[in-house]
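Incident log, support desk, overnight shift.

02:14 A customer reports that sequence design results differ from what the structure should imply. Their input is reproduced verbatim below. On-call engineer (initials T.W.) acknowledged and began investigating.
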């Protein structure tokens, strides 16, 4: 801001507004002054040649020190001393520090001149070392090092005093000719020539599928006295059934089978099991035949005969199966035991133990313990323990009948009955007649005769009679499908409805019905349908937060009223029952009460409302109505 020396409060009498403006201008001058230079009246001058404080611009990277045509003559900076408070001395340009160390200047590593690194032109060096006119070694930086490594037959001697490296040949220094070997010179570039065996030539072609070198051994790969040995077939001799005929001229051997064989079986199949046939694993494999229970094997070595004898009397272990008709034929003499020694048939006691499968024809004398599945033809004499599934043609009348206590079980039971009291009647049950023992309840479609006790459900009858009419109580309601005649007084607790109208009874009590909006932003609206009554008297409206609430008679009226502002009254007959505006969580008394009703074509218990959020933030709003039902 420019310096303002024209400050006056005006001519007297002084106005406070003029004094206020004058002091405001003075404050603005002090906001812009930081020092007084020269002989200011009543102020101590500041000598910039002897400043005793730091000088810094108020804003980084904005102001200049000097300018073109207004340069400073000299700039002095203190020297740099490492590891002291003077380590920060020097000139800082960005993050680069230029240090004055005694009589020389040190600049940061990597400093360049016009983009190129600063080097000493008097100290030259090689950047690239070329090797064998093709390969090269290039220095990657000032501190890079070239390495010389010894190889096979080469050693290096380093003389630091002379700054020299001597390469010595530690390998072949010379060559002399030997047996089968010729050389071109004793030293220098020497050519070595093999004057011995140069190659081997086969006299016959290699047979098909024969691997080169197979069956051949060489005792050494170089030198003299190399031996080649045949490690394959050296000779073939005759054997049993084999005749060998050699041809010494050609070296070919002919092998002849002197005992040719006839046809034989490749496999042995047992009981048609083609997946598990017996096959010889080798030419010397043996097929073994073993005797079993009741089977005797006899062999004759001289005649090569095998005799199989079956013993008709033997102990039977395992299962006894019948033929395809399910019958077992033949006699079983002796007892029969299972694999775990469990008795199946006892020939001494003449009893059969264990489970019996299949048809049993003949008389059974004794007790049968276990389940019998299938038809039983014939008389059964004795006690029967267990369940019987199937039809019985007739049975002997029993003097006793076992009764099972089922009290407390939730199972539904169905009583049984017969058509009449004659012998041979069918026992029947009806799914519409059931009984539960846990609640002592008998359920049926119709009842005839006198009924004592409570009846839950519908009663369809032409007469409800009782010796004492006060003993008849209908809970919760009775539906009469025809005219009802009541001989004595009829006491009704609650409303008595005739053709949709209430007659007598106590009046309805007030109640509350509530609905909650979705989470809506401030000034946003949401529609809610509160489940109430078809007709009601409205007493109060309560909101959980500041809101504008409108109650309607039907959905169409709510839709039509959606564009109305809260400061505009609804038109008469617009379907608006009531509306309120709250400033927080509060209850508004509707005085006098407002009569509301549902005006849909088919009236429902829904009370349509619209809620506008006025809380100042996003939230859900609950609206609670205090109402009294006036229509069923």
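02:41 Re-run completed on a clean worker. Output:
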């Amino acid at each position: 801001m420019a310096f303002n020396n024209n400050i006056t409060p005006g001519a007297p009498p002084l106005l406070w507004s003029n004094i206020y403006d004058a002091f405001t201008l003075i404050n603005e001058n002090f906001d812009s002054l930081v020092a007084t230079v020269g002989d200011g009246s009543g102020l101590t001058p500041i000598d910039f040649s002897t400043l005793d404080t730091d000088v810094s611009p108020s804003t980084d990277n904005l102001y200049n020190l000097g300018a073109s045509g207004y340069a400073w003559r000299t700039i002095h900076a203190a020297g740099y001393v490492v590891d002291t408070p003077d380590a920060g001395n020097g000139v800082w340009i960005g993050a680069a520090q230029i240090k004055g160390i005694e009589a020389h200047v040190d600049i940061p590593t990597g400093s360049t001149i016009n983009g190129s690194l600063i080097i000493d032109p008097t100290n030259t060096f090689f950047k690239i070392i070329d090797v064998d006119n093709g390969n090269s070694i290039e220095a990657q930086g000032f501190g890079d090092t070239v390495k010389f490594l010894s190889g096979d037959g080469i050693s290096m001697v380093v003389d630091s005093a002379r700054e020299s490296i001597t390469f010595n040949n530690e390998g072949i220094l010379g060559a002399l000719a030997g047996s089968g070997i010729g050389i071109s010179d004793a030293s220098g570039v020497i050519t070595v020539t093999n004057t011995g065996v140069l190659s081997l030539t086969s006299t016959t072609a290699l047979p098909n599928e024969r691997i080169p070198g197979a069956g051949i051994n060489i005792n050494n790969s170089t030198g003299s006295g190399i031996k080649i040995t045949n490690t394959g077939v050296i000779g073939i001799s005759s054997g049993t059934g084999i005749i060998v005929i050699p041809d010494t001229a050609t070296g070919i051997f002919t092998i002849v089978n002197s005992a040719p064989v006839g046809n034989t079986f490749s496999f042995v199949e047992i009981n048609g099991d083609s997946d598990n046939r017996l096959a010889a694993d080798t030419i010397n494999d043996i097929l073994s035949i073993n005797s079993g229970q009741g089977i005797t094997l006899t062999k004759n070595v001289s005649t090569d005969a095998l005799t199989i004898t079956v013993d008709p009397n033997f102990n039977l272990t395992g299962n006894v199966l019948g033929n395809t008709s399910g019958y077992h034929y033949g006699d079983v003499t002796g007892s029969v035991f299972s694999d775990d020694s469990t008795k199946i048939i006892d020939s001494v006691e003449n009893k059969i133990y264990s489970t019996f499968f299949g048809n049993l024809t003949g008389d059974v004398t004794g007790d049968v313990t276990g389940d019998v599945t299938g038809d039983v033809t014939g008389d059964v004499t004795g006690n029967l323990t267990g369940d019987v599934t199937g039809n019985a043609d007739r049975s002997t009348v029993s003097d006793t009948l076992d009764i099972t206590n089922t009290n407390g079980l939730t199972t539904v039971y169905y009583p049984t009955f017969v058509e009449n009291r004659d012998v041979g009647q069918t026992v029947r049950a009806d799914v519409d007649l059931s009984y539960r023992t846990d609640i002592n309840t008998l359920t049926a479609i119709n009842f005839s005769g006198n009924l004592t006790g409570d009846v839950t459900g519908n009663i369809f009858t032409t007469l409800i009679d009782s010796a004492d009419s006060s003993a008849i109580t209908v809970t919760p309601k009775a539906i009469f499908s025809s005219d009802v005649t009541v001989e004595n007084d009829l006491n009704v607790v609650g409303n008595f409805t005739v053709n949709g109208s209430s007659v007598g009874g106590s009046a309805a009590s007030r109640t509350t019905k509530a609905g909650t909006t979705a989470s809506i932003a401030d000034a946003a609206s949401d529609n809610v349908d509160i489940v109430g009554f078809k007709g009601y008297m409205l007493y109060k409206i309560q909101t959980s937060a500041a809101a504008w609430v409108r109650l309607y008679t039907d959905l169409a009226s709510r839709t039509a009223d959606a564009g109305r502002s809260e400061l505009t009254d609804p038109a008469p007959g617009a379907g608006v029952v009531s509306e309120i505006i709250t400033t927080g969580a509060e209850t508004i008394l509707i005085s006098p009460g407002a009569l509301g009703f549902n005006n849909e074509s088919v009236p429902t218990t829904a009370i349509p409302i619209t809620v506008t959020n006025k809380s100042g933030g996003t939230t859900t709003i609950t609206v609670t109505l205090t109402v009294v039902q006036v229509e069923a």
